[in-house]
């Protein structure tokens, strides 16, 4: 499907999550956190790129993505549990495409068995080598439980 075919996007979310700060932001976007929290931006990014593309979160001027943002409506649906949403696309010609993700889509969740493929993909998008990723991953893998938190705390001013 081409993002240019989309006339309307309707996103239904759990009321609590929909009201989280930034979720309803439709622009203008000024920062990474603005786009990361915006349901309309994140949905439009996936529609325009055909997949999740981390680099697109830093591209504030992407015409194919910006048009679906303007066509997006986000509303609450009390019947949806947390980590759930329903998305409906109305396409040119009147055709509708919809789907619902319940409970965060556990079958799509990143876990220990899928983290390497996903993380290596993000690493490459940042123009880093696989060798650098493997060295970083090896260093993280030997950390004691809680060490990552301690490491992050040392970076705080």
Main features:
38% helix, globular, 2 domains, alpha+beta, 157 residues, 60s Ribosomal Protein L30, Chain: A, 4-stranded mixed sheet
Per-chain topology:
Layout: E1 6-13, H1 15-18, H2 32-37, H3 39-49, H4 63-70, E2 72-76, E3 85-91, E4 96-101, H5 115-125, H6 130-141, H7 147-154
Parallel strand pairs: 1-2
Antiparallel strand pairs: 1-3, 3-4
Helix pairs in contact: 3-4
Please provide the count of β strands. Answer: 4
Terminal CA distance reads 47 Å
Overall pLDDT score: 83
Low-confidence stretches: none
Strand line-up across the major sheet: 2-1-3-4
State the CATH superfamily name of the largest domain.
2-methylcitrate dehydratase PrpD
Order of helices and strands: EHHHHEEEHHH
Second CATH tier, the architecture of the largest domain = 2-Layer Sandwich
- Overall spatial form: globular
Tell me about the biggest sheet?
Answer: 4 strands, mixed
Give the CATH topology of the largest domain.
Answer: 60s Ribosomal Protein L30, Chain: A
Helix % is 25-40%
CATH class of the largest domain: Alpha Beta
Number of domains: 2
Name the beta content range: 15-25%
Number of helices: 7
């Amino acid at each position: 499907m081409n993002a240019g075919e989309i006339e309307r996007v309707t996103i239904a979310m759990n009321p609590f999550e929909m009201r989280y700060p930034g979720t309803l932001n439709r622009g203008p976007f000024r920062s990474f956190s603005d786009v990361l929290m915006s349901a309309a931006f994140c949905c439009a990014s996936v529609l325009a790129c055909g997949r999740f593309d981390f680099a697109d979160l830093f591209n504030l001027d992407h015409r194919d993505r910006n048009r679906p943002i303007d066509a997006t409506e986000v509303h609450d649906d009390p019947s949806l549990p947390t980590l759930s949403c329903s998305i409906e696309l109305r396409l040119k010609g009147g055709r509708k495409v919809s789907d619902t993700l319940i409970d965060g889509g556990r079958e799509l969740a990143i876990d220990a068995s899928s983290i390497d493929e996903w993380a290596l993909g993000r690493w490459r998008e940042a123009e880093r080598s696989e060798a650098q990723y493997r060295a970083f991953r090896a260093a993280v893998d030997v950390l004691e439980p809680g060490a990552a938190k301690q490491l992050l705390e040392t970076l705080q001013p």
